């Protein structure tokens, strides 16, 4: 059990009340018909948590069954801005950290500090700090990688798993030409110092090309311009996807026992459908697969549809 302590810093008072006009609006956003049942909802609670030796900025809203939302690169917890109110008003406690090296969370300087196993310990440490023994876990991009690993290595902590864009590590087997072409940028990111330089040249021209289609591109650039932020984000690739793994990862992880939902988007420039579909072979419980017609950023591009899907798939009791 990881030791973690936290300091709560609420930005507003918690409230417990019958559904207000805003509560009904949030239920409409979620795609769920409003009822007369009182809704417990914490409107905006942020916390600074100490977990696994680092400080994490965590948004914690709602009540009852916990759902942990994990973002990827170059996002922060802000990726989930459309899911947080929908899930909270539907009866979930929504926990959204900025993962290590991102947003307002601490950035360790060492490349090896960004291994996925460290992030798994971050998430379990945050859950411990909040008194959450078991939660649904939803991840996108690198966050999905963390979610898969968490479900495989700590099955007692994960109730249901939702993976957006990224499938089970190594499930696709050896990459085909399409996969190699889509993942070319990974090789650039491995070049420490040089990658940072070329990505920022000419008003972040290459960065804008790589992440073309992202609605939050200007916010990404503003955040990445902070000292050390870009290097911290690229260190996720350097710690987990060295050149030796270009032809795939060995299947050395245990299978996932939690019921799992995989979601892939037809406009994803970085990941193939095969790596998500083949994840079914690494899930011993029920498996569900859905496709959306949008870019890589499913939580932003298809917010309402994703909210409906999450509320349908995740038990709230």
Please tell me about this protein's structure.
The longest helix has 17 residues, at 194-210. The chain has helices at 21-30, 83-89, 116-129, 142-153, 177-182, 185-189, 194-210, 217-224, 229-240, 273-277, 298-301, 303-313; strands at residues 4-10, 15-17, 39-41, 45-51, 54-62, 65-70, 92-97, 135-140, 158-164, 260-267, 287-295. The strands form 2 sheets. A 9-stranded mixed β-sheet has the order 1-4-5-7-6-8-9-10-11. Strands 2-3 form a two-stranded antiparallel sheet. It has one domain (4-181, 248-313): Alpha/Beta hydrolase fold, catalytic domain (Rossmann fold, 3-Layer(aba) Sandwich), CATH 3.40.50. With 317 residues, the protein is α/β, with parallel strands linked by helices. It has 12 helices and 11 strands. The chain is globular, with a radius of gyration of 19 Å.
Q: Largest sheet, described in full? A: 9 strands, mixed
**CATH superfamily annotation:** Alpha/Beta hydrolase fold, catalytic domain
Number of domains: 1
Supply the number of helical segments.
Answer: 12
Radius of gyration based on Cα positions: 19 Å
Give start-end ranges of low-pLDDT stretches: 1-43
- The computed structural class is alpha/beta
**Which sequence of strands runs across the widest sheet?**
1-4-5-7-6-8-9-10-11
Any guess at the CATH architecture?
Answer: 3-Layer(aba) Sandwich
Q: Report the end-to-end length measured between terminal Cα atoms.
A: 26 Å
What is the H-and-E element order?
A: EEHEEEEHEHEHEHHHHHEHEHH
| Anisotropy-based shape | globular
Percent helix among the residues? 25-40%
Mean pLDDT: 88
Q: How many strand units?
A: 11
CATH level 1 name: Alpha Beta
Q: Give the amount of beta strand, in percent.
A: 15-25%
Instruction: State the CATH topology.
Output: Rossmann fold
């Amino acid at each position: 059990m990881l030791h973690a302590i936290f300091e709560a810093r609420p930005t507003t008072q918690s409230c417990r009340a019958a559904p207000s006009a805003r509560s009904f609006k949030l239920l409409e956003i979620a795609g769920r018909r409003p009822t007369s049942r009182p809704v417990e909802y914490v409107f905006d609670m942020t916390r600074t948590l100490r977990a696994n030796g680092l400080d994490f900025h965590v948004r914690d809203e709602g009540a009852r069954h916990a759902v942990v939302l994990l973002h990827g690169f170059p996002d922060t917890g802000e990726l989930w801005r459309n899911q947080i109110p929908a899930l909270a008003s539907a009866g979930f406690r929504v926990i959204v950290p900025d993962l290590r090296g991102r947003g307002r969370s601490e950035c360790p300087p060492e490349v090896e500090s960004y291994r996925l196993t460290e992030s798994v310990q971050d998430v379990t440490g945050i859950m411990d700090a909040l008194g959450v023994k078991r939660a649904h876990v939803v991840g996108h991009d690198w966050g999905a990688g963390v979610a898969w690993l968490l479900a495989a290595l700590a099955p007692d902590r994960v109730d249901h798993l939702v993976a957006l864009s990224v499938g089970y590590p190594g499930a696709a087997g050896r990459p085909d030409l399409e996969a190699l072409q889509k993942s070319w940028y990974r090789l650039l990111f491995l070049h420490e110092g040089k990658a940072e330089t070329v990505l920022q040249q000419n008003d972040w021209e290459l960065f804008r090309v790589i992440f073309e289609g992202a609605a939050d591109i200007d916010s990404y650039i503003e955040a990445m311009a902070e000292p050390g932020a870009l290097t911290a984000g690229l260190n996720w690739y350097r710690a987990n996807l060295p050149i030796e793994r270009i032809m795939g990862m060995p299947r050395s992880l245990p299978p996932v026992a939690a019921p799992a939902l995989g979601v892939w988007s037809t406009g994803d420039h970085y990941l193939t459908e095969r790596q998500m579909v083949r994840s079914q072979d690494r899930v011993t419980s029920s498996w569900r697969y859905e496709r959306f017609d949008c870019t890589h950023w499913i939580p932003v591009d298809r917010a309402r549809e994703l909210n409906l899907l999450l509320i349908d798939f995740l038990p709230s009791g």
